[in-house]
TrEMBL record:
The organism of origin for this protein: Pseudoalteromonas caenipelagi
Domain of life per record: Bacteria
Record-given protein name: 4-alpha-glucanotransferase
NCBIfam families listed in its UniProt record: malQ
SUPFAM superfamilies, alphabetized: (Trans)glycosidases (SSF51445)
Phylogenetic lineage: Bacteria, Pseudomonadati, Pseudomonadota, Gammaproteobacteria, Alteromonadales
Catalytic activity from the UniProt record: Transfers a segment of a (1->4)-alpha-D-glucan to a new position in an acceptor, which may be glucose or a (1->4)-alpha-D-glucan
UniProt-listed Enzyme Commission number(s): 2.4.1.25
Length: 661
């Protein structure tokens, strides 16, 4: 089985990992073989295994240069693989798009690797060449042995960097925004109001939830982290009354007022009724498209055509459905308008988009790229204290070998689509660019293992696209993170993501503000943990009990654990010199004191959750549940204007203290 063991390695199938308990776990042969079978490999066909091993291990040495050639700008080294006896003569590199030409002697390089095959020694040689600007360039290489073609990726040393000054911003789930004028769900006009209020209080960014397209016909599927397509926007975020077609049509205005009336009762409820909201909103969106078709002007036609050309790749999945394409046009316009407004109002970054780790298994994105995915393998997480069997997130797993197809075009387009009209991109579960936990069935039992991805190329794409789009990058690195990921993130200027709830030392005590790592986006909480008001008062545990997620025996145990956590937080305050709180203290005052202390940290970015400013008692999401609790539907209790009016002095004090660091 030596050939199979070699293929495990070459195909990225992990050998072992360290469990959360510290236990060293080695994956058994059966589990690793199943991961390969999910990639379409017949593990009983020895001839096929030998052929794959040749293609992945030996063939690259027989080709002078691969389809993609990475040239790091910090050293400008072009790497080629040649038979040792061909290391003579002159080589020439030509890039037509840049009118670039560079010649060098084949004897001038440094040998950095070797391979012996059928009596011939092949060597990998690095040659210093002239600098190439950031980007991807079709390149011709002329050697005495002939002409070779590749695509050179000129890779900057780091991602796009914003000003080093410590900053403060707001995080929000866009759909939760409440206003008199929206149609029951937060939209881009609400986002504009949030931009104006945040900027006027000294905030430098707004961190958004993933804005990905969801499922129009299945209103129960509303998780932004299990989308229909990550390269397209959710049309429900379009502000109907913000569109030119609305302004020009009395009929649409009349229907808008009727819809507002019909939605009035639901808008007072704590949870969005997606079926009702979608019925009214899609009716109005249809009317906008019909008006556009009937009243097109040359200027609008030209702008729409330009949009279709620019976004041609992600729009392909809509099968020339012009109505849906028009909605994407409107959504993109409005998102872009919000970003422009944020910069015009003095924000350093503006909007930060969020890229989900995967798409749903029956999604447009999956079906359009089916060949890139493994079969019957899902993305998930290894066993942890909350899920001893591991977690299956239900998202299809990309095959690491197929991901290389067409020069990594899939991942490149994914990044480009999500960097449009924003100043930053948060990548959910950034460890995915290095490895992902795969879940699959082995003889009827759920099993799993880590599968490794082409890390060097995916990091290169991140750095290139970040610089080309001038978009800063944040990697959500919560949980078990391979050390090489953190190291590369630090070198590449990719910020990490810290949740205060989880920042503890070896004794389980909360880490003091001055000891929190600096190159991070620091938050108290995010969408997967309760808002502070709920956490301090234990309301999230009561909610879990009400929804039968905790039984009568488990509730007192969880309340006792929370009581211990509150004791830890009080000790944290005491060490910071804040000693006037106890476990009965007002949640709002405790929260404001917590943020005031965290503002003194060296974290590059401090993020205040709008849920916490709204003093929310209800979680927006309870991990591990689907329809048991109304995830991704909870609204804010107050309007944006009211929230900022009520918290004006507090927000100003935090943003000013950050700028004074």
């Amino acid at each position: 089985m030596q050939g199979l063991s070699q293929l495990f390695y070459l195909h990225g199938i992990g050998y072992d990992y360290t469990k959360y308990t510290g236990e060293h776990v080695v994956f058994d042969q059966q589990t690793r073989a199943q991961a390969l079978r999910c990639c379409g490999v017949d593990t009983t066909d020895l001839a096929a295994i030998d052929k794959l091993n040749f293609e992945l291990d030996i063939a690259p040495w027989l080709n002078v240069i691969g389809e993609v050639c990475l040239v790091e700008q910090q050293d400008s080294l072009l790497k080629m693989r040649l038979p040792e006896h061909q290391l003579n003569g002159i080589a020439s590199v030509y890039i037509k798009a840049l009118n670039y030409e560079h010649q060098f002697a084949l004897t001038s390089g440094a040998v950095i690797g070797e391979y012996l095959f059928e009596g011939t020694r092949y060597v990998e040689v690095a040659y210093q060449i002239k600098a190439i600007p950031t980007g991807y360039f079709d390149t011709d290489i002329y050697l005495p042995s002939g002409k070779y073609q590749t695509q050179v990726w000129s890779v900057p040393s780091e991602c796009y960097k914003q000003a080093a000054q410590p900053s403060c911003g707001i995080s929000v789930q866009l759909y939760t925004l409440a206003s008199d004028r929206n149609l029951g769900i937060g939209d881009f006009a609400d986002l504009q109001e949030l931009v104006i209020q945040s900027a006027s209080h000294g905030c430098d960014y707004i961190l958004l939830n993933p804005l990905h397209m969801l499922f129009k016909e299945q209103q129960h599927r509303v998780s932004p982290y299990s989308p229909n397509h990550r390269g397209l926007l959710n049309p429900l975020y379009i502000a109907v009354d913000w569109c030119d077609d609305f302004a020009q049509s009395d009929q649409i205005k009349h229907q808008f007022e009727l819809s507002l009336n019909a939605l009035k009762t639901n808008k007072q409820a704590p949870f969005i009724d997606y079926e009702l909201v979608s019925e009214h909103k899609y009716r109005l969106l249809d009317m906008l498209y019909q008006h556009f078709k009937q009243h097109q002007t040359p200027k609008v036609v030209q702008a729409f055509a330009c949009f279709k050309r620019e976004f041609a790749t992600p729009l392909e999945v809509l099968n020339n459905d012009e109505c849906q394409i028009y909605w994407q046009y409107l959504a993109t316009q409005q998102l872009n308008r919000c970003q422009r407004l944020s910069l015009e109002n003095g924000m350093a970054v503006g909007l930060i988009n969020d890229l989900a780790v995967g798409c749903a298994e029956d999604s447009l994105e999956f079906n359009a790229n089916r060949a890139l995915y493994a079969d019957k393998a899902h993305v998930g997480a290894p066993p942890d204290p909350w899920a001893e069997a591991g977690q299956d997130w239900g998202l299809p797993a990309l095959n690491p070998i197929e991901l290389r197809s067409n020069k990594f075009e899939f991942f490149k387009q994914l990044l480009r689509s999500n960097m449009k009209s924003v100043g930053g991109l948060r990548i959910d579960h950034v460890m995915a660019i290095r490895r992902l936990w795969w879940c699959f069935s082995v003889q009827g039992t759920l099993q799993g293992c880590y599968v490794y991805y082409p890390f060097e190329h995916l990091i290169a794409l991140l750095k290139i696209e970040s610089q080309l789009q001038q978009t800063m990058i944040i990697g959500e690195d919560l949980g078990v993170v391979p050390p090489e990921v953190r190291s590369v993130m630090l070198d590449a200027n990719i910020l990490g993501n810290v949740l205060f709830y989880f920042e503890k030392d070896q004794n389980g005590e909360f880490v003091q503000a001055q000891h929190i790592r600096s190159q991070v986006l620091l938050m108290v909480a995010n969408h997967d943990v309760p808002p502070f008001n709920a956490w301090w008062q234990g309301e999230d545990l009561i909610v879990k009990s009400q929804y039968k997620l905790l039984d009568t025996q488990a509730l007192p145990n969880e309340q006792s654990k929370r009581d211990n956590e509150k004791d830890r937080l009080l000790r944290w305050f005491e060490k910071a010199g804040v000693e006037h709180f106890n476990k009965q203290s007002d949640a709002t005052k405790v929260y404001e004191a917590l943020i005031t202390q965290l503002a003194k940290s060296n974290a590059t970015m401090l993020c205040i959750q709008l849920d916490d400013l709204d003093e929310q008692d209800l979680p927006v999401n309870i991990p591990g549940t689907y329809l048991e609790y109304p995830n991704w539907r909870r609204r804010l209790k107050h309007s944006i204007r009211d929230i900022f009016t009520n918290k004006s002095d507090f927000i100003n004090s935090i943003t000013q203290s950050r700028k004074g660091l």
